[in-house]
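Methods: example folding runs. The two proteins below were folded one after another, and each record is reproduced exactly as written to the output file, sequence line first and structure-token line second.
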Amino acid sequence: MKTVLRLQSEKFKLSLIAILLPTACFLTYYFHAVLGTGAVVTHFYYIPSILACLWWKRKGLLVPVLLAALLILSHIFLRVQVPTLNDYSRAFMLIVVAIVVAMLSEKMAKTQEALRESEEESQNTSMELALGLSEVFEALKRISS
């Protein structure tokens, strides 16, 4: 049951990223080619980047790297203008934010795993204690009878 839910969750995640990436491409085209500006474009890049890094940790870094390349290459392909220092700094910041999210996501996953192991260990210990107490209780019953 857990594996079915996990597969459905993974399909949802992939579907969402598959929708957000073409949307980012379209918005890049729209802002660069139609409106002639690039200032707002990178705001739309953070959502898929953060989600990908949150869900897939280091593997999710592929999404912000692709989007950063799109930001820089869109100037060249759309022949709008030459990428400026501002564009390079936005691409760099997108990747930095993604790396931080991926690192925090990995740390969070490790902490959750440690908590799960600790919970299992405490449950085993409490079961052993309960079993020992029931044996002592039975022994006391035999002695008192």
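Second run, written to the same file directly after the first:
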Amino acid sequence: MNRLPLVVLGLGGVGRSLVRQIVRNRSWHASTYGLCLDIQAVSDSSGYVGTADTVLTDTELAGILAAKEGGTALAALDGGHETTRPQTVVEAQGNRCTLYADCSAADETADALLQAVEGGSCIALANKKPLTQSQEIYDRLTHTPEGRRRMSCSRWEATVGSGLPIIATLQRLCSSGDPVTSLAGAFSGTLGYVMAGLQAGQPFSAVVREAHAQGYTEPDPRDDLSGLDVARKALILARGVGYRVELADVVVTSLYPDAWTDLSVADFMDALPQRDAEMAQLCADARSQDSCLRYVASVTGGSLAVGPQVVPLDSPLGHLSGTDNLVQFTSQWYAPLPLVIQGRGAGVEATAAGVLSDIVEMAWIHCAPRC
């Protein structure tokens, strides 16, 4: 049995779901892969629980998850260590080969991940932010000092499209020598829901309020409607193609004016009807062209753009409905018809499953034998 030490950074919805999936799949991993994932520590923004010398039992993990769901910070638990510095969690593991799963939404984990991967450990990310910092940080997280891609000790499938195999497909195209000439996609279930509502004739203000009430948006809907989250995903894909670009290079069209940035959430929601007429006109113009409106990220020739786009009704993006995500790759072999991946692109369970798949794959081909 190969036993792999694992540390989970971030114990929000995705992190808790990942821990539960690991516990639930223990017998499957053992019988199929001869693998046991030993969770040695879990962390949140307050600190962490666990040490390099002991393994958290499934009973202990259940208690930790229950405490977190009840609003208790990890540092306040018995055996908790207080720190706001993610590197401390890595340093506590010593020089031991460990796998770190970043399920947080923090910029600050980048230094901890760099410390881990450059020290010989492995990393799996659901957190997009480290990979959308500078190109230099992206390179260090995803490539060896010699410039080779870290195919066996760095994975980030769940950063784009949750559990959909988007990153893996892109890497397979590139590794086969099939250059990706362009890609386009809808990477926000929230914005997909909004665009589908507009296509059905709902006013913009009504569909945003409905999405907010249903919990499809963040507590502040501007976190979705700004397009910044989609821009981060487009940047990760563009860098995966080989473009050397920064987040500032992405042309982002928000669904609300800059003047609304400093409004309270309540005032922002009250202001939404001011956008109804313009959004309705955009949809009417699209319908007159046998097309519809989608919030699209596109990468072509090194240029990145994110925003509302008119697409033909009979295209893959035109057929998209609900909260599904979609990406289409155009390459030498996939032209004129693109390679299309579509499916559930959001939700803590699907995202955690994407991280777990990365963990098992790395353990199978690299980490467990080396440790």
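Comment on the second run: DSSP finds 15 helices and 13 strands in the chain.
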